[in-house]
Amino acid sequence: MNGMALQDRYFDSLSRFLKTREEAGLREAYELGRQALAEGTGVLEVVTFHHEAASRLVPALAWEEVMAPAAAFLREALSPFEMMQRGFRETVLSLRARAEELRDANEKLRELNESLEKRVSEGVRAVEMRARELARVNGELQQFVLVASHDLKEPLRMIVGFVQLLERRFPENLDESSRQYIRFAVDAAHRIQQLIEDLLSYTRIGGGELVLKGTDLGDALKEALLNLKLTLEEANAEVHAGPLPTALADRSLMVLLFQNLVGNAVKFRGPDRPRVWVDSREEGNEWVISVRDNGIGIEEKYFGKIFEVFQRLHARDQYPGTGIGLALCRKIVEQHGGRIWVGSSPGKGSVFNFSLPKVVEGSGT
Amino acid sequence: MTVLKRSQNRMPEVLLVEDNPGDVMLLKEIVRMTDHPIRLNVVRDGLDAIAFLSREGVFSGQKEPDMILLDLNLPKMDGREVLAQIKGNAKWSHIPVMVLTSSVGEKEMRDALRQRADYFIPKPMDLDHCVVLVKRIESLCLQNGKDLEGSR
Question: Does an H or E element contain B15, and which?
Answer without folding.
Answer: strand B13-17
